[in-house]
């Protein structure tokens, strides 16, 4: 065997390694440090480390999101099944964050059709959640969880068959209506506060997932999942480092009258 094919093989491996490193560098950024999952302070101005960009990769630090199926029938009630796999198969030792061991976010690539689900874990390590996706297109599935004191957001693609009609991101807004509620966004730097009213009267939301509300921020273009910290136990206030020059879709969820409502903003 001549040395040439061996060398060529080496060059390919080198190129692949470099390619992966370049992608990882883009996704994470050279100067970002992992956010400590425990002992994280939510107080105003006390964030010691930069927020981490997540949700761009299907695997991270030895764990991989495996979707049982990467396509679903349009509009059909289905069961979305997946596992989080380590080197020896599905792992089951998840930690509770925001009152749940797994938070699953499903959204179409254009930011429409947002769903926040709490799947159940089977004895075989397979999570499952009932779901129905009424519109065709490519969806992003985010599995948000904590294990071994570290926070993960792994993401994969899911397709719903049919002709998709993608819509541009709606224009920036500071007022959103949902289920008869009006929600006003008040932003000061990285602090995002939300005031909820109904019929002109202030609404005090009920606790939802251990806070006054839950906020997901997805970046336009790549749907990078921004980790958001509630800054108060009862108020609807968050700290989020939205990068300037990018637009985001914000999904604020709050609970009132026993039901969860979602207000959406572009910022
Ligand atoms: Cu959740």
Key attributes of the depicted protein:
1 helix; 267 residues; six-stranded antiparallel β-sheet; 22 strands; mainly beta; binds copper (II) ion; 42% strand
- Main beta sheet: 6 strands, antiparallel
Shape: globular
- The secondary structure category is mainly beta
Distance between the termini: 60 Å
Q: How does this structure look, described?
A:
The chain is mainly beta. The chain is 10% helix and 42% strand. It contains one helix and 22 strands. Strands 2, 3, 5, 6, 9 and 10 form a six-stranded antiparallel β-sheet that branches. Strand 2 and strand 3 form a beta hairpin. The protein is globular. It starts with a helix and ends with a strand. Bound molecules: copper (II) ion (CU). The site of copper (II) ion has 6 residues, from loops. Copper (II) ion (CU) binds next to loops.
A few lines on this structure:
The protein is mainly β and 267 residues long.
What's the SSE blueprint?
Blueprint: H1 3-28, E1 53-54, E2 59-60, E3 63-67, E4 71-72, E5 78-86, E6 89-90, E7 103-108, E8 115-117, E9 120-121, E10 127-131, E11 137-147, E12 150-160, E13 175-178, E14 181-188, E15 191-198, E16 201-202, E17 214-219, E18 225-226, E19 229-230, E20 237-239, E21 248-256, E22 259-266
Parallel strand pairs: 4-12
Antiparallel strand pairs: 1-18, 2-3, 3-5, 5-6, 5-10, 7-8, 7-11, 9-10, 11-12, 13-14, 14-15, 15-16, 15-20, 17-18, 17-21, 19-20, 21-22
Bound molecules: copper (II) ion.
């Amino acid at each position: 065997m001549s040395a040439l094919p061996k060398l060529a093989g080496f060059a390919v491996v080198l190129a692949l390694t470099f390619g992966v490193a370049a992608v990882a560098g883009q996704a994470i950024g050279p100067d970002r440090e992992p956010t400590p999952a425990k002992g994280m302070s939510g107080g105003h101005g006390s964030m010691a480390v930069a927020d981490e960009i997540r949700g761009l990769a299907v695997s991270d630090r030895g764990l991989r999101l495996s979707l049982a199926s990467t396509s679903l029938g349009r509009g059909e009630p289905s069961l979305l099944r997946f596992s989080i796999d380590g080197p020896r198969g599905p792992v089951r030792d998840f930690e509770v964050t925001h009152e749940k061991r797994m938070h699953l976010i499903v959204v179409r690539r254009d930011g429409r059709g947002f769903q926040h689900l709490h799947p159940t874990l089977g004895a075989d390590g397979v999570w499952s959640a009932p779901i129905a996706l009424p519109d065709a297109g490519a969806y992003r599935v985010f599995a948000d969880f904590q294990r071994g004191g570290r926070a993960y957001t792994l993401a994969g693609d899911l397709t719903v068959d049919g002709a998709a009609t993608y819509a541009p991101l709606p224009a920036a807004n500071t007022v959103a209506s949902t289920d008869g509620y009006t929600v006003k966004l008040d932003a000061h730097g990285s602090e995002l506060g939300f005031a909820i009213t109904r019929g002109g009267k202030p609404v005090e939301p009920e606790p939802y997932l251990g806070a006054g509300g839950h906020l997901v921020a997805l970046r336009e273009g790549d749907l990078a999942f921004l980790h958001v910290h509630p800054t108060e136990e009862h108020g609807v206030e968050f700290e989020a480092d939205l990068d300037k020059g990018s637009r985001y879709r914000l999904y604020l969820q709050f609970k009132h009258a026993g039901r969860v409502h979602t207000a959406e903003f572009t910022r």
